[in-house]
Design brief:
There is one protein chain. The chain is of the alpha+beta class. It folds into 3 domains: 175 residues, Alpha-Beta Barrel (TIM Barrel), CATH 3.20.20; 108 residues, Immunoglobulin-like, CATH 2.60.40; 196 residues, no CATH class. Strands 8-10-11-16-13-14 form a 6-stranded antiparallel sheet, covered by helices on one side. The protein has a 5-stranded antiparallel sheet with strand order 17-24-19-22-21, with no helix packed on it. A 5-stranded antiparallel sheet has the order 25-32-27-30-29, with no helix packed on it. Strand 29 and strand 30 form a beta hairpin. Helix 3 packs parallel to helix 4. The longest helix is centred in the first third of the chain and has 27 residues. About 7% of the residues have low confidence.
Amino acid sequence: MIGVLSEADAEYFFANRQAAGFNAQWINLLCNTYTGCRADGSTNDGVPPFTTQGDLSTPNEAYFSKVDHIVQLAAKHGQVVLLDPIETGGWTNVAVANGPTRAFNYGKYLGQRYKSFPNIIWMSGNDYQNWGDATVDASVRAVATGIKETDPNHLQTVELNYQRSGSLDAGSWAPLVNLDAAYTYFPTYDQVLKEYNRSSVPVFMVEANYEGEHNAADQGTPQILRRQEYWTLLSGATGQLYGNRVSWPLLDGWKSGIDTPGSAQMKFVTNLFAPRQWYNLVPDQSHSLVTKGYGTYADGGSLGLNDYLTAARTSDGTLAIAYMPTARTISVDLSKLSGPVNASWYDPARGTYLAISGSPLANSGSHDFSPPGTNSDGDGDWVLVLETAQAPASATSVPDSTVVPAAAPTPTPGPASEAAPAPPAAAAITANAPSAAWGFVQVNNAVPQSAESSVSVTYPRAQAQGDANILAIGWNDTSSTIASVSDSAGNTYQVAAPTARGDGVSQAIYYASNIAGGANTVTVSFSGAVPYADIRITEYSGLDRTNPFGAAASASGADAQASSGSVNGVAAGELVFGAGITTGAFASGGAAFTVRTITTPDGDIVEDQVAASAGSYVATGPVNGSWLMQVATFH
């Protein structure tokens, strides 16, 4: 990122990854040939990191100014930066040649310079094979110790050796590490559970098999990536990083090589976990939840040949999730749930739900579950989702934010982040807004890439009676019309923002108030098969049950900032709901708006805000491509 890209291309990358649902990036502050940069570590325009080559005591202001800008651009696009201060794959010899004192002072320089940047996690190491050498480690660890001296508030971690390791393998690093990086090319549950069980320090998966690479026993196919993703999150991890053979070294042509099936799958993972209390899930290590059919645990070998099922449950019994990498019948003790159980299958290859017949099930005794054939990729892996009707939504969920903890605001002077990883807080109401009666509940979307005349989307969780559904319905032509909007719960839908037309795109906003409770699938039918339908469904609590709709506006254009036009007469505390469709992709939401989803791969958006005061409101958002933006308000 720093050594290869211009700042303009770096921003393109961050915007793309934000739209794909990611919220963190691993960036090497120093980069040479080991990690895809120039041998001397200079930038794409020839600026070296040190005025005297290899001398850590001579930091080059021009180089570190670019580092500043890159970290700030990341924050602009909601990305935490795991910043490696002296990447050990290529810079160990430099650290050792400088010795512990210079290394420590270099760390102090970094800590002082970046202590007020809110979106940094310091991550030392990288394929750190020789951390056991005391001479080597004294200098590498001195950098991290120097950082802590002047920047005690940011989290620190270290990636140790391949092919498997955890940060706490190196006891000398324990005083510095407050975020444990698990690293493995083998079944990820094994290393994550090892770290989860041995300390109270949060664990995340720093590196596993990369898409398009052959790292150990397996080729990085979408199926292999799915296994390690779900194994990881159901074994106690707070998040995970994703790797791709094109994007990690930013190879020539990277712009056309990063929106891949594996990248899209990461958003499906987040869409499942983020709206739920994922951070309260406890791994089912004793098999008291899934009692039969959980396969064979392995501490090594091929992921593709491993059939082990990972499962986890919240301690209050309102939620349980199990991932089976291969199709089989499993037995589940439903008495581990605290109420009647809504059961569904989640297709990890497409991000869609299939309700299980008979739900809600009694929360007693053993129940057998068998998956519904192959998933949409033709593979046998499925996710079983079990939740009670009273299962609470995450108070701080971000359904399409991503997979590594801690979201980041734009850097401003002030105290640095000091909290341990937690679910991103972007769904919270703006701090200076009035107390609002409404609340966001959940979101889902369907984005078929073939022309369809009817599209269905299922709500992730059972709905609450009396809530309201708000739908954004878009597609890529300007002649087709919406024939009907219905759902399996029998709710009646009305138009909020009527169908508007833009440059090759159409969109409308519909709503249903005072809805029935329970499982629900929304179906939108069109006058004919429409290309690139993009159906975004949301649920809100606390809206007026008889007449919630206020006003709406629509506008289209092709400039870099989409804008819906204004709605007037909005009262303080009302819901302002924005939705946009584009031929390109939205990069983020508008000022004061919370993004609820940016769909993958279409790049269309749903956002909302609470009206801070009475007046006029406009839905906006940065975008590339032609766009159509709509806004609707609700009492």
